[in-house]
Amino acid sequence: MADAIRAVRADGDSEQFAEMMEFVSAFNAAMLGFGPDVLHPDKQTKVMTAAAVYAGIVFARMMFMDAVKQQDTARAARMVAINFRNGIKVGLTQANRVALEKGYGGNA
Fold it and tell me: For every one of its 108 residues, what pLDDT tens digit does the chain have, with 9 covering 90 and above?
């Protein structure tokens, strides 16, 4: 399996984490380009689904390039689940920080 899939996790303070968060920021900017209604919960559900589909497409491209094997699919799916949970932690941390800075309460 490609080292990148094994090594990059959505937690920590590593250089890889910082680079991964640059991609996250770019994805977020792209989504905001659809307009303010993209922040509606119904749209956010579609954004999450699209992100998961996109991850699968990227994995398929890597299979085609022989960077990963089909046997690595289960391992990659586990990493997606781990990173999803870590993404929730990162998102809640960010949301709480913004809420405190702006003087709002939070839900988490």
Answer: 555 554 455 566 678 888 888 999 999 999 999 988 988 999 999 999 999 999 999 999 999 999 999 899 999 999 899 889 988 998 899 889 888 888 876 665
User: What global pTM score does this model have?
Assistant: 0.74
Query: Kindly report the CA angle at 46 between 3 and 31, in degrees rounded to 5?
Result: 75
* DSSP codes of every residue in the chain: --HHHHH--S-SSSHHHHHHHHHHHHHHHHHHTT-GGGGSHHHHHHHHHHHHHHHHHHHHHHHHTTSS-GGGHHHHHHHHHHHHHHHHHHHHHHHHHHHHHHT-----
- Mutual angle of helices 41-64 and 73-102, in 10-degree steps: 140
Query: C-alpha angle 48/12/41, rounded to 5°?
Result: 20
